[in-house]
Write a structure and sequence with these properties.
- This protein has two domains: 3-112; 131-393, Methylamine Dehydrogenase, Chain H, CATH 2.130.10.
- Strands 1-24-23-22 form a four-stranded antiparallel sheet, with no helix packed on it. A four-stranded antiparallel sheet has the order 2-3-4-5, with no helix packed on it. A four-stranded antiparallel sheet has the order 6-7-8-9, with no helix packed on it.
- It is elongated.
- It has helices at 3-84, 89-110, 131-135; strands at residues 144-149, 154-160, 163-168, 171-175, 181-186, 194-198, 203-207, 212-215, 222-224, 232-237, 241-246, 252-257, 271-274, 280-287, 290-296, 301-308, 314-322, 330-333, 339-343, 348-352, 358-363, 371-374, 380-384, 388-393.
- Helix 1 packs antiparallel against helix 2.
- By secondary structure, it is α+β, with helices and mostly antiparallel strands.
């Protein structure tokens, strides 16, 4: 081995040593990036914690307020009945049922538990945001994410999880989350006036003027419910009750229990309530245990009333413009107990807060909007026009 070979050998060992020494520098870069990730994650966790705490405290206050209002209303009714001696056996049973139902709701709310998995760390954790604040900024709607053009005029729609039920001229069709038709049948009964989903029955409810039907999501089993014809117009479901509205001046609201024996033993409602003189109901919607009622008064004023599903006590009222137009306002429930009103006559969407305050108005950029349904995850809203259904991303 000559001197040059020895020098090359020495140089090679030195290069290898330098490479090994650089590994400590690489480790430093990695740990610095890991430290930065840790700091950002802690900040995001703290931000998420504050947002969820705010969301929970707000929900708790709303539930307490709602339950206290309902209980106070019942207590005042009992005090009045005792004083006037108007509590007969029928009234006693009804009040007892309402108290037991409210007591069950209170107990369920008190027994809620929060389960958190500390082992889960999302890769996109930095994308966490406060949905409540973002949800106040949904109008104007973004461009359509998905659109399906319908073969004939669409009359109404409903949604169950990720399935969309639509009613065209003479057909019922089920669409999947990508708006692909997966089932269709011909509808040979009276025209369908409105449709909605009952989570309790796990079926769609279809309203015609004289009959009420339920249908499964495969459109394989259609049942007529044992409810007398009343010239029906619209309705809605909460977890416990079915509400139906008559199509007439001085509209009436009928309330039915969604018990296990519902299909076989509900010829008569729990009770019915008449509107005030010359008032008519144009639409009815529900959000958890709240009812939203779109009313037209004798002076042609339109307002949205938010009521208890137990007592129909009114919590707040939102006034709209007078109405002499052809189409009726429609009401769509949103997340966080908010609402969207649809006025097809001027293509206007109206976003209402859970306290009955106007958040924002905006024109719908497509053709006349007729119905709206928010998806279960809250990220999208489906808008139905006469010819199409458009899906818009909310956040």
């Amino acid at each position: 081995m000559n001197e040059e070979d020895s020098r090359n050998l020495f140089d090679n060992i030195n290069k290898t040593i330098e490479t090994v020494e650089l590994a400590s520098s690489l480790s430093s870069q990695f740990t610095n990036r890991l430290d930065n990730w840790r700091q950002n994650s802690l900040e995001n966790i703290d931000q998420c914690y504050k947002g969820k705490k705010q969301e929970f405290e707000f929900h708790l206050r709303q539930q307490q307020k709602q339950q206290l209002n309902q209980l106070t209303f019942l207590r005042n009714r009992i005090v009045f009945g005792i004083k006037e001696k108007t509590i007969d056996e029928h009234m006693f049973d009804r009040l007892n049922h309402l108290i037991a139902s409210l007591e069950n709701q209170v107990n369920q709310f008190q027994s809620y538990r929060l389960n958190i998995s500390l082992a889960v760390v999302l890769n996109d954790f930095a994308l966490l945001r406060d949905h409540i604040s973002n949800f106040n900024e949904i109008l104007p709607l973004s461009s359509s994410r998905t659109t399906v053009k319908l073969p004939t005029k669409c009359l109404s729609m409903s949604m169950k999880e990720n399935l969309l039920l639509i009613n065209t001229d003479f057909n019922l069709s089920v669409l999947d989350e990508k708006f692909k038709f997966i089932q269709s049948i011909q509808w040979n009964n009276e025209p369908i006036l409105n449709m909605f989903c009952s989570q309790t029955l796990n079926r769609f409810i279809l309203i015609t003027s004289n009959r009420i039907f339920s249908v499964d999501e495969q459109l394989m089993n259609i049942e007529r419910l044992p409810i007398n014809g009343k010239n029906w117009l619209t309705g809605t479901c909460t977890n416990e009750y079915l509400f139906l509205v008559t199509s007439e001046i001085n509209s009436r609201i009928f309330k039915y229990s969604l018990s296990d024996s519902f299909r076989a033993n509900q010829e008569y409602p729990l009770f019915s309530i008449n509107c005030q003189e010359n008032e008519s109901i144009h639409d009815l919607s529900s959000n958890n245990d709240l009812l939203a009622i779109v009313l037209r008064t004798k002076s042609q004023q339109i307002h949205l009333d938010l009521c208890s599903s137990e007592t129909l006590e009114r919590y707040w009222s939102f006034e709209l413009n007078s109405m002499n137009d052809f189409y009726s306002y429609r009401c769509c429930p949103l997340k966080f107990q908010q609402w969207m009103l649809i006025n097809p006559n001027n293509r206007e969407l109206i976003h209402i807060s859970n306290e009955g305050k106007l958040i924002k108005k905006a024109k719908y950029h497509r053709s006349l909007p007729m119905y709206a349904i928010q998806t279960d995850d809250g990220r999208f809203i489906n808008i139905m026009t006469n010819e199409c259904i458009h899906q818009h991303q909310l956040y």
